[in-house]
Specification:
elongated; 5-stranded antiparallel sheet; 424 residues; 5-stranded mixed beta barrel; single chain; OB fold (Dihydrolipoamide Acetyltransferase, E2P); 5 domains; 10 helices; alpha+beta
């Protein structure tokens, strides 16, 4: 290749760069000011696109060996280019830092360090939040370690930002309890701190004092209001007084939610002798609370001789311990009890011997619901004839007390359920 040809190729390769007019502040006649004006948009803002269009890098190719995120380009061929890019990306990732912190604000962060004097919390701001160790409960100091997530209440902005972990926790719990009032399906563990004059309790939930009326302290009225002082009970937030800033909680609502499950457990031990506490008396019997949340009634005819004697002489008092058997489970809220073993006739005891499935029986409609008919197939034995087994016209024919012929297709003795359908 001749020298003349080499020169021609070199000139062709360099033409885009060599013929590009680039003015600098050092250029003749100081053309830098004119160049800057050319890069401003109509609003006087710097136009990056205009700048890039005249920038020499337009004619360069990005380094294909540098790993970048989508949209980024690195032109440098230096051996440290990747390292520099990574460092710049790490710096840019800090752009999501908080722009400010405000007194009274609750901020989520992480424990950075713990010393004898301070707990420092990283809240993703330019400064740490400093928590005075001596002002925090002992459990805070013992429970938290560097790296743990924590909520901190900003208390003051002086030489340093000061905060409180216990204050942040308290405010966060208070807000969660407020939200729980609307949901109504979350139970919290609360300590019954003290009894107040108006017939209620102060219940402490993770540092937040709530109010529980005496009527909401149990399924039935407590015979001794001091009996639950100091105890930890599950309570459900039920209302919030904005005027007083008070959250009202209920242990009763929690207990009522347990009843369906307790009824199923009771069916499995219906032949066992049980123990409960008297909650009150009426002219026809004694009311008893048992198994945490269940209440039953022993009719005077079902009291043993000793208890009947005390009943007549009005010696039975709320809180007295009493033994009994379950006579019948009529519903979740209606259970009959007895102290006389001979009066207990459990119809489920020999149900599988009495009915060999499938079998057809003459029965009686007990109740009529939208989803079917409850049918009494024998004393104390009720099954469901589901609406899916009935034509709409047939459903309309029957009412409570009507006789009906049904087929017992299956009996589940454990769950005490009888499955019915119409005979084919």
């Amino acid at each position: 290749m001749t020298d003349k040809k080499r020169a021609r190729i070199k000139k062709k390769e360099l033409t885009p760069v060599e013929t590009l007019e680039v003015k600098t502040p050092d250029s003749e006649n100081d053309g830098g000011a004119d160049r800057i004006e050319n890069w401003l948009d109509a609003n006087g803002e710097f136009d990056w696109a205009a700048y890039e269009a005249t920038c020499i890098t337009v004619y360069r190719k990005p380094n294909p060996h540098i790993k970048t995120k989508e949209g980024d380009r690195v032109y440098s061929r230096e051996p440290y280019a990747q390292e520099m890019y990574d460092l710049m990306e790490g710096h840019n990732s800090m752009s999501n830092m908080r722009s400010s912190v405000t007194e009274g604000e609750i901020i989520d962060g992480k424990v950075f360090a713990i010393s004898s004097e301070w707990i420092t919390v990283d809240v993703n701001w330019r400064e740490m939040v400093y928590v005075k160790t001596s002002k925090e409960p002992r459990y805070i100091i013992e429970e938290y370690r560097p790296g743990d997530d924590v909520s901190v209440l900003v208390q003051a902005k002086e030489d340093h930002v000061l905060g409180s972990i216990s204050g942040g926790m308290k405010q966060k719990v208070f807000r969660d309890l407020q939200a729980g009032v609307e949901d109504g399906d979350t139970a919290w563990v609360g300590k019954i701190d003290r009894l107040i004059e108006n017939g209620g309790y102060i219940v402490n939930i993770q540092g937040v004092d709530c109010f529980m009326p005496g009527s909401l302290a149990g399924i039935n009225k407590l015979h001794d209001f001091n009996s639950i002082l100091g105890e930890e009970l599950y309570v459900v937030p039920v209302s919030f007084s904005a005027e007083r800033g008070t959250i009202v909680v209920s242990h009763r609502k929690y207990l009522k939610a347990l009843i369906p499950g307790k009824i199923e457990e009771l069916k499995a031990k219906i032949e066992d002798k049980l123990t409960g506490s008297v909650t009150g008396t009426a002219k026809y019997g004694v009311f008893v609370e048992f198994d945490t949340c269940l209440t039953g009634m022993i009719h005077t005819n079902d009291l043993d001789a000793d208890t009947l004697s005390k009943f007549k002489s009005r010696e039975i008092k709320p809180g007295d311990v009493i033994e009994f058997w379950v006579k019948d489970i009529i519903s979740n809220s209606k259970i009959t009890l007895s102290q006389k073993a001979e009066t207990i006739d459990n119809p489920w005891r020999d149900v599988d011997k009495k009915f060999k499935c499938p079998c057809t029986v003459e029965a009686t409609v007990k109740t009529k619901k939208d989803y079917g008919l409850f049918i009494t197939v024998d004393t104390g034995l009720v099954g469901l004839l589901h609406v899916s087994e009935l034509e709409p016209s047939v459903m309309d024919l029957y009412n409570a007390g009507d006789k009906i012929t049904v087929q017992i297709s299956r009996i589940d003795k454990d769950s005490q359920k009888i499955f019915l359908k119409l005979p084919e």
